[in-house]
Every structure is written in C-alpha cells, then in structure tokens.
Design goal:
Blueprint (H helix, E strand, L loop, with lengths): L2 H28 L15 H7 L13 H13 L3 H25 L7 H20 L1 H8 L4 H23 L4 H21 L4 H16 L5 H26 L3 H13 L2 H13 L5 H24 L21 H9 L3 H16 L1 H15 L21 H4 L2 H7 L3 H12 L11 H23 L1 H6 L3 H24 L5 H5 L2 H18 L22
Helix pairs in contact: 1-4, 1-5, 2-3, 4-5, 4-6, 4-7, 5-24, 6-7, 7-8, 8-9, 8-10, 9-22, 11-15, 12-15, 16-22, 20-24, 22-24
Length: about 550
C-alpha cells in the first residue's frame, strides 16, 4: 500500500474518532435535564416573560435585546423554555465542528508533509476532545444567558475569517473571499452585540477583514457594499436597542453605575483630593462628604461579609448595587433620577483625567487575573455544577413569580424548576479531560511568552503566516480581557470561561508551530491547491 492510501486511511480514521467524540458529547449534554438554569440577571428573562404575558418587551437592565429576542422566538415557537437549552447545546456541538474545520484549515499554513499532517490531526483531535467533553462549556450552555452561545459565535467568525484568508491568498478567488469576509464581519458584530466585552475583539476582526477586502482585485461595487452592509447592520442593532430601552432607567444607569462602582477607590481618592484642595463648591461639599463616607462604609461592610468576593479588586462591588438598600440605590433616590447619573459620569471622567496611572494599575491587576500561571479560561468545574436549587432565588422573587404565572410557558418553567429543585448532576468529569484542561491552564501563559520569544526562529522556519494567525488568535483573547479589565472585573469566572475555546485554539496552534518549526520547510502552495478548480486540499 502506497503512502497516499495509508494517509487517506489515517484521515478517515481520525474523522471516525471525531464523529465518536461528537456522539459522546451529545450524550453528555442531552442526558441532563433540558430546563435552563436561571440566575438573578433578570434582563435575559424579564423581557421574555413580559412579552409572553402580553406586556411590553422591555426591562433589559443593560443587556442587549438580541439574546432575549432569540429566547422569545424559540419559546413562542415551541411553547417550552427547554427548547432554549436544546438549541444552546446544539450550538455548543456546532462550535466543536467549527473548531475542527478551523483547525484543518490552519494546517494549510504549516509545512506540508505526511508526518506533519499526522501530528496536526492528532493535536486537533486532542483539542476537540478537551472542548467537547469538558464540563464548563456544558455548564454555560445550560444557563439562560448569552455566555451559552459565545463560543459558537467566536468560532463562527474565526472560521469564516480563516476561510476568507484562504480564498483570498491561497485560491485567488476574490468573490468567495468577499462573501466569507462579510459573513465573518457580520458574525463578529453579532457577537459584540450579544456580549459587549467582545467589542475590541470584534473590532479587530472587522478591521483585518476590511483590509483583506480592500486589497482584493476589482470588485469595487462589492467593496463599497461591504462597508455599507456592515454600517447598516450596526445601525439597525443600535437603533433597535435604543428604541426598546429609551424609557428603561436601569439600562441607562448600567454603564455609568458599572464604571463608577468598579473604579470606586480611585474615584474616592479623587473626591478626597478635590475636597482637600477646595475645588468642590460649598453648596455640595457637605453632601459629598456624607456620600463618600457612606460609600466607604458600605465597601468595608461588603468586604467584611464577603472577603473572598473580588479579592483582587479589594471590595465587593456587587454589595454596593444589588440590594434594594445598597449604596447605589439609596443615593439614587436621594439625589434624583436626573442628577445622580450626571454625578456618576462627572466623577468617573474627572478621576480618569486626573489619575490615568491609577486606572492603568487597576486594569493591569485585572488583566493579571486571567494571565496567570493557572489561566481561569480552562477551569474544570468538577463536578458539573448543574444544581437547580440555585435558580430558586431568581424565580421566587415577587416580580418574576408574577410574570411566570401569566403565560403557559412561564407556568411550565416554574413547575419544571420546582420538580428539579433537589436535582444535582453526578460527578460527570472525565479524569483525562480534567487533567488536560489543568495542564493547558498551567502552561497557557508560559506557551504564550515562549512563542513571543521564539517568534524570530519561527519566522526563519517558514512559519511567518502561521505566526501571524497565532498573534491574531491571542489578540482576540486579549481584547476581551482588556475590555472587562477596564470596565468591570475579571474575577467573575464566566468572563474567562467564555474564552475557553478560542484560547484553546491559540494554545494548540502555538504548540503546533513549535513542532512544525523542526521541519523547517515553508508552505508550498502547489501542494495544497488544485490548479484547475482553485479548491484547497485539507490537511
């Protein structure tokens, strides 16, 4: 048997293993109860229940309308909230499929040899197994929040962008590249709308694809259409969000509240400086002194009650805003609905102008929560934390309970959650998968740093394009981390865990580049492109 036939059998065998992994992953997901887990971020549930009850599709509490709108559509179509979890599990499996497709395409930018191709398939299967059988994606998919679908959209825009690159530079098919680039850009915009923390990452993808489209030969009308289509989609999403939330006070307060409370120590120090320097008008000086003393007292009280909550931040920011009698809501009532947002806005921006290095230090500490020697993106969640008792505080709250009772789907959801109240999933963690996740978490930062150090060697080995793609993947992760670090706190685990799949792809590509560098042979385009059709052979 010649080498080509042996390698083809090897590829078929790898495909069979991948198919078996998807079957096991589907069982891991669909053997669980399909009722979604509900938490106290009511913006994802309240608009749906309100609309099902015949009221307005409103009260988003600062979240985008797209995810609640999709939930509403599924529940209206099926009459059951379980359809949402089923759809999220299917998208989770689809994310694994996109990971596998993207990984196969990445092999085109590495040295082409039978040995290298075998190694590439093995590494890809390892990554696919880690993602499909890990507990944390399953846990995210079970929850009623957009974190459940982020990994799918991350991989969708990454895969489409990669296909656009292949079409443009390896196949010389500009029309196909244009269509794929547009699809990737639109999916990136949708990801940023679902989860605003992806705004920087999505902007990077759109910027790179805009350059790719601009460099395509001809297609001037299509190039203009690319920009117009993107602008129209962004405008449509923003306009619809504004129309739905124009009278939603919680949505208007969400960003100023978050910016103020998660930078509160810096803002307090700026207020103290201005008070000491006599820069505060006498008319508001007394009230400002009382306000800052009240804030410091609540920060100390929250830290005393929850010392392990936000340990890097140094205080419990949620304690200042979640309770009805928290500092935020007390002073909002005291200062008034118009004056209080102005107060939050003024002191945040004044503090940022006067103390930029203090903000930079805060951001650096929060970035360090992710980039540490045990990266939280690879958290193992053993056992699988599907416990429906955690949904009770949300669904038994008076307003939510009333809304649940106003529609058949709401009453069915309440009954399902009550029946599952005592349910706790068994220890579903697989030992080898958990260990692989831990090893990936422990080595993530080291591999990143070594890849930067070894980058000149990788370029000399003919891996310049692969290294550029690696930089882009790492940048997509960094963009999300930087966004959260600047506005909020990376100490909430799900902010890191939604980056699991894209971080895993970057991590494995870095390791693969190291292995490929030993072959030290650049990519030969003739080996991967069929001359007549322009189609690309997969690794």
């Amino acid at each position: 048997m010649d080498k080509a036939k042996r390698f083809e059998k090897w590829r078929v065998g790898c495909g069979a293993i991948a198919a078996a992994l998807f079957v096991v992953a589907a069982w891991c997901r669909f053997s669980l109860p399909q009722t979604p887990l509900i938490d106290t971020d009511y913006g994802y549930l309240w608009p749906v229940l309100s609309k099902l009850a015949g009221e307005a599709f409103a009260r988003f509490q600062g979240v985008n309308f797209i995810y609640p709108g999709a939930v509403l559509g599924l529940v209206r179509l099926t009459g059951d909230f379980r359809a949402v979890t089923i759809a999220q599990h299917l998208l989770g499996l689809a994310a694994g499929g996109l990971f596998w497709l993207a990984w196969r395409r990445l092999g085109l930018f590495l040295p082409q040899s039978e040995r290298g191709a075998r190694i590439h398939l093995i590494v890809g299967l390892m990554g696919l197994a880690i993602y499909l059988l890990a507990n944390n994606p399953i846990w995210l998919e079970t929850r009623l929040r957009p974190d459940a679908v982020c990994m799918f959209f991350e991989m969708l825009c990454s895969w489409l962008a990669l296909e656009a690159l292949v079409a443009a530079h390896l196949c010389a098919r500009p029309r196909r590249a244009w269509g794929l680039a547009l699809g990737a850009s639109l999916s990136a915009v949708l990801l940023a709308a679902l989860k605003p923390s992806f705004l920087l990452s999505a902007g990077l993808i759109v910027a790179l694809l805009s350059v790719l489209v601009a460099r395509l030969r001809g297609l001037w009308i299509k190039k203009a259409g690319f920009a117009v289509s993107l602008g129209a989609v962004v405008f449509a999403i923003a306009a619809r969000q504004s129309a739905l939330t124009h009278d939603d006070e919680n949505t208007k307060l969400f960003l100023p509240r978050t910016l103020f409370l998660f930078q509160a120590p810096i803002i307090l120090s700026q207020i103290d400086r201005d008070l000491a320097a006599g820069l505060v008008p006498a008319a508001v000086r007394g009230e400002l002194v009382i306000l800052t003393a009240d804030l410091q007292r609540d920060m100390q009280e929250g830290h005393r009650l929850n010392p392990n909550h936000y340990p890097v931040l140094g205080y419990d920011a949620d304690y200042l805003q979640v309770r009805n009698e928290s500092w935020f809501w007390r002073w909002r009532r005291r200062m008034g609905a118009e004056k209080f947002p102005q107060f939050l806005h003024y002191w945040y921006w004044r503090s940022l102008r006067e103390q930029p290095w203090a903000f930079a230090r805060k951001i650096a500490r929060q970035v360090g929560v992710f980039y540490r020697w045990d990266c939280p993106a690879f958290g193992t969640h053993r056992p699988l934390p599907v416990a429906y008792a955690t949904s009770q505080p949300a669904v038994t709250a008076p307003t939510t309970a009333r809304l649940l009772g106003l529609s058949p789907a709401g009453r069915s959801l309440a009954a399902q959650l009550e029946r599952l109240r005592a349910y706790k999933s068994a220890d579903r963690g697989l030992g080898p998968i958990n260990r692989a996740q831990k090893y990936a978490g422990w080595s993530f930062l080291a591999v990143l740093l070594l890849s930067l150090v070894l980058s000149p060697w990788l370029v000399r080995a003919g891996l310049g394009r692969a290294l550029a793609l690696l930089v882009v993947l790492y940048s997509l992760v960094a963009g999300n981390v930087l966004s959260i670090a600047a506005i909020h706190s990376m100490e909430i685990s799900r902010y890191s865990e939604v980056l699991f799949l894209i971080a895993l792809l970057a991590h494995l590509l870095a390791l693969r580049c190291w292995l490929a560098s030993w072959e030290a042979r650049p990519v030969d385009r003739r080996l991967i492109v069929r001359p007549k059709s322009g189609m690309v052979r997969d690794v």
